Write a sequence for this structure.
């Protein structure tokens, strides 16, 4: 009797394994909070649309500038190309640390 019950359970389990393997993974939403950092603009890389900021602690951070990044100085809107003239100035960058790198949401020249 135990052998028959075991065989039936094993057959059911083996039949369910392929069904379980084809089930899509549950979808999860990951929310990444924005962070803010202040430092000195050291490099502007137009080819990669990247800026590099050096913090007060001497750590260099890189930020990807995307189409929706807001760039301002004294409440005036600037373009990415305007940042080359701002090297050496203090910046405040609001960004999201993503797997593709730090993506700047806003850059404010102080």
């Amino acid at each position: 009797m135990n052998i028959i019950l075991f065989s039936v359970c094993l057959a059911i389990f083996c039949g369910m394994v392929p069904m379980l393997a084809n089930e899509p993974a549950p979808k999860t939403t990951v929310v990444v909070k924005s962070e803010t950092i202040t430092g000195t603009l050291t490099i502007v890389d137009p080819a990669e649309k990247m800026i590099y900021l050096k913090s007060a602690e001497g750590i260099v951070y890189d930020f990807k500038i995307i189409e929706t990044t807001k760039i301002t100085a004294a409440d005036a809107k600037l373009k990415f190309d305007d940042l080359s003239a701002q090297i050496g100035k203090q910046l405040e960058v609001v960004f999201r640390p993503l797997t593709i790198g730090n993506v700047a949401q806003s850059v404010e020249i102080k």
In short: The chain has a mean pLDDT of 85. The domain at 35-109 is CATH 2.40.50.320 (OB fold (Dihydrolipoamide Acetyltransferase, E2P)).
